[in-house]
Amino acid sequence: MNAKIHVAIIDDGVNADFLNSHLLYDVEIAHGGAEDGRSLNHGTLCAAIVQTYFPDAMISSVKIMNDRKGNAVQLCAALDWCVKHGVQVANMSLGSIKYRDREMLREAVNDAARAGLIMVCAAQNGGLLTYPASFANVIGVRCDRSGILMVGQYTYDAEKAYSSGIEFTAFARHELVDSTGGIVRCSNCNSYATPFVTAQVCKALQQSKHVPSIEKLKYILYENSYRPIQDTDLPVIQYKHPDWIRRAHVFKGEGVVGSVAPYYFQTPYEAQIPRTKVAAFIEQAILREQEQQPDSAFRTGKWSGDLTDTIVLLGTMEPEELQEVEQLAVHYRKHVVYISTSQRHTPAPPFLSDHLRWWQQEDHFFIKQEETIAIEASHIPLICMYYSKEFDILYFLHVLRDFFARDGYQSWIVVDQPTAMLHDMEYLPLKAAIHGLQALIIAAGAMAYSAYTDIAIFCVEAQHISNWSKEQDVSVVDIELSVISVAEADSIQISIQTEQRYSQEWVFPELNEGDIGRFYTSLEQLLVN
């Protein structure tokens, strides 16, 4: 690969005089000079760190902040600019902790990753979930607060990679030399750990014959990282969320009904899979999609960005069928999401060595005591919702979330169904309730707090719904809801109860968007009051 690597510093501007070099591009999406006219603003220091550890970087500045303030729209525009101007690596020592920005940023990140842009992003210093840093399609970075790492060192953190998407911890207390020979010392923060990792990414690109996938690049970084114990096995990178999906074929096994709620990604094809020749059925869908590509794609082997990137399998499959799907995925370069409540599958080495993602839900949940926070202390209203099995709870939650969003509220929703992940909700396994409902609520509260949301909705199936949380000795719930399908009356019954002993009940012949809207109006008034 070319000796020079084009790096964009998406930040508050870069002062080229401090770098003692010129900028390839100096773009202002947020207009105004370098912050406060200072030479040592945030973006300039980030650029200097990249240049210090990788002198072959061609630096471009994409300014999206003034007074250290910007927004998600500007960040999305910056990523689009990077793709259109041949940027290879984007350094983002910034991000949003606003849950409302997640959907927009995820779409922009996944589009940019599909186009080949490598993104290195800083986590928020307070430990909250950060976007884009927490997404699978970027390299997330935080600084070393233990004092273990020395100058020029970084390490891979499997636990943080899974829990928050932040894969790498790096040294940040750099000493830089300015154009006059003076020494500038960087503070120990995530912002200045990130450009150091960006420099390591540039080195890996420079030494590669071909541009590696983001997964392969993470493995290369791991191989070059500081490891107190020199193990020989590469870690299997696990993701809490399958948030990389742009387009996916969805295949449902026997007996899988699914929800009418839309997936968070595009779904060009969705079907029930046959009892036999499953892999052949899936391959037909892949080939039909390829046939719709321009003739030039077949000659060059370069397919458009509209091809699916993931195969989604819902329901239990035979081990031999899963092995055949693995082989298909390797051949056609697809990731796999496999959701089964009764079976786990470990991909074979050929699949893993191709650095493809195989995602399955975790059936156990673990959270450190120091990461928990009492739900009362978070000041996030908690709604506990209990539903009957026959009810399409994901559609109900999808519509309810839209009503909250319309009024400016961001609702964080966790459900005991793993398919919730595909509908932009969280999953919390019931097996985590080994210590009772209280343990689940504590876990949900901690997750909601780290997501920095307005409202938390915790949803669990219960056969005996009436007043369930009180039977379980739970006292931190603000509002209890039950949603029951009443077969004999062919209706839906919703009951609501608050800590202040207020209660109300609705009965609907069916639960359409209008009915949910009327219910939402009452719920919103309760929350406000």
From TrEMBL:
Location of the active site: D11 (charge relay system), H42 (charge relay system), S191 (charge relay system)
Coiled coil: none
Keyword Hydrolase: yes
Peptidase S8/S53 domain span: 4-210
EC number: 3.4.21.62
Keywords, ordered alphabetically: Hydrolase, Protease, Serine protease
SUPFAM superfamilies: Subtilisin-like
An example molecular function term from Gene Ontology annotations: serine-type endopeptidase activity
UniProt xrefs under Pfam families: Peptidase_S8
GO biological process, one term: proteolysis
Broad enzyme group: hydrolase
Tagged with keyword Hydrolase: yes
Matching Gene3D superfamilies: Peptidase S8/S53 domain
Entry's family note: Belongs to the peptidase S8 family.
Protein name in UniProt: Subtilisin-like serine protease
Gene: apr_2
